[in-house]
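Just scan this pair:

***
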Amino acid sequence: MHNNLIILAGGASSRMKKEAVLDNLSPEEIAQANERSKGLIGVGSSGRPLLDYLLLNAKKAGYKNIYIIIGEQGELFKEFYGSQNVNNDFHGLNISFAVQYIPEGRVKPFGTADALFQAVEQFTELNTQQYSVCNSDNLYSAEALLALRETTSPNAFIAYDRDALEFPSERISRFAIAKLDKNNQLLDILEKPSAEVLNDYKDVEGKIRVSMNAFKFNGSTLYAHLKNCPVHPERDEKELPTVLLNSVKENPNTTLGIPFSEHVPDLTAKEDIADVKEYLQKYYPVLDWNV
């Protein structure tokens, strides 16, 4: 099993920064939503960031080396998790920071695939190892993160049961869906699925499966696909699902969809803050690092 987890935290958080009139948020919470990276918003006990809880679950799952990809203005991460660029000790986790630089001529980062490519260029040892990747603004369970460590598949992702996600149906309908074969190998990813095609995308359990950006990759075989990732024609970004599909086309039967049926708390917009706070109060009343 591998010990490396890369956390994507260098995005622009543009949806979180959109104006919203909400009576269930304090002025301090609104200020944090407008100014901080999403994973650093203080939704937990004593105002601790969501990222604390993700790191706790990563520790429970057995990860040792954490690489947080931050933006060029990401110094606040170092106030929470260690002032050095590499090898900070945070409750027994070894935390290092990679920086996602914005290419010349752009005003915002170039997407998740670009973030991961810049990280493995800065920490080249990852290109000879296996590693997991996830978002900083989602709270994945320790069980899901462990499943990524345990799988023997070269590449994998957590294939979530769409019906188990506790989001409004309109939001869920916009999620890209994964097409798996009878052995749960990834065949295709369909963006913006219409209701008419859903039956064709059900897996062997009759479930519609979606990705919430929780992956496991083989560094040596993924590198070329990261380096050569094309730009998404609509979003003008380089994205990890594109990398994954290009890898599958070149190497079929190497990307396992690991079935999971559970909710994944998500901090995308200000409207999510109260829901995530309630979830943490219910399931994580205290942060216990003695695991």
The first helix runs from residue 27 to 35. The CA atoms of residues 130 and 171 lie 32 Å apart. DSSP finds nine helices and ten strands in the chain. The beta strands are 4-9, 65-71, 88-90, 93-100, 130-135, 155-161, 177-180, 186-190, 209-218, 255-260.
